[in-house]
Amino acid sequence: MTTTGPAPRRRMRADARRNYERLLAEAAAAFAEHGVESSLEDVARRAGVANGTLYSHFPTRQALLEALMRDRMEALASTARDLLDHPDAHEALIAWARAGIAHAAMYRGLATSLMRSIEDETSELHAACQAVLTAGERLLERAQAAGAVRSDATAPDFYTLINALAWAGEQTTPEQGERLLTFAIDGLRPSARP
Amino acid sequence: MTTTGPAPRRRMRADARRNYERLLAEAAAAFAEHGVESSLEDVARRAGVANGTLYSHFPTRQALLEALMRDRMEALASTARDLLDHPDAHEALIAWARAGIAHAAMYRGLATSLMRSIEDETSELHAACQAVLTAGERLLERAQAAGAVRSDATAPDFYTLINALAWAGEQTTPEQGERLLTFAIDGLRPSARP
DNA sequence: AAATATATTGAGATAGTCTCAAGTTAAGCA
DNA sequence: TGCTTAACTTGAGACTATCTCAATATATTT
Predict the structure, then answer these.
(1) Torsion, CA B142, CA B144, CA B146, CA B149, rounded to 10
(2) In terms of pTM, does the model score above 0.90?
(3) Looking at the complex, does the CB of residue B171 fall below 8 Å from at least one CB of chain A?
(4) Which residue of A76, A108, B170, B178 is 20 to 30 Å from B106, comparing CA positions?
(5) How far apart are CA B85 and CA B9, in angstroms?
(6) Over the stretch A42-66, which tens digit does the pLDDT of each residue have?
(7) Rg of chain B over CA atoms, in angstroms?
(8) B154 touches chain A (CB under 8 A)
(9) Cβ distance A90 to A32 under 8 Å?
């Protein structure tokens, strides 16, 4: 069900396809090295095309990010659906949260983009983010129904939490990231107090 | 004990002082409106000086931010010391966390700068951030000693947590921010489980 | 009213974003 | 095969931003 590529109305010309792929590959490398605010000028240079070509394929930085992340976002949503079959609702939720954090921590600045995109309907990433949020919602609701997670937590809360943990992870050590995740998990438990 | 101003070795010339203050005021306005990544070009324009003047007063964006935040950071550290006298160690910690979050959420992008600065010793903000972290550490340790907070949480964890909550608050509604704070507070409780 | 230390200026080097008219090239058809 | 045309690429150009520094201007001191 997943297709890779630029959602072509008609088939792309061979040179266009080549450039498109090359741009994606170089963007991935640049983002991995310098974060999502990397120079697009530089991406085009590395891909060996004029910057106008980059802009014709990807009108905005978000569009480029969307193309880079599309498959992963779909995979993340799909993972959520699979985890609905996991026998332990709480463990399933935690496993998915880990996957979400790893996803959002892929590039520096990505978590911030993912947060912006869920609010901004004009963002090319919006739909994908929305799909991820919704997929997570099912898992969250199941865990809540099982009494494993506090009932006042909403899906947007959970989405934000995952991104916040990814953001925090960008800035510090893996150990601290792991500890903060532990705190978050405990914080989501139904409160001991009335 | 607090002095406002550019930590002058000798007294500044009157025109320099005037420009310095004007630049700070316009930077505050610009940062409030557009976040800490505002155009410095624009700040200089709004202050009615050439951009070279801005750079001569504030060699880097961090230096400008430091000048803007200095008093507030000192106040935040001072608040932490005062709260050591609060009868309830846990309440004191929570009250201070709220103050810290409000502080770090003052400008869009500020939490990210505050995280960068605690790591980067060459940052003009580093010392102030360090002071805040240390002040918070006392409060945290007292709450831990009182058995109100889990003992595996470190001061850097707490610092990161506050900034992460401020970051999350930048992106969403006050209600969600409040809920996430609740989760964080509960997550910091000594765990119910072994 | 100099002299001098201190500030300000703004052009210039560099770099990035984004657009678009002109040029190039792949694909399909005769 | 060569022509046609729609699809694609190009790179200069209009902006904006960061940061530097020699020339200039101004406050303060004597």
Answers:
(1) 130
(2) yes
(3) yes
(4) A108
(5) 36
(6) 999 999 999 999 999 999 999 999 9
(7) 19
(8) yes
(9) no
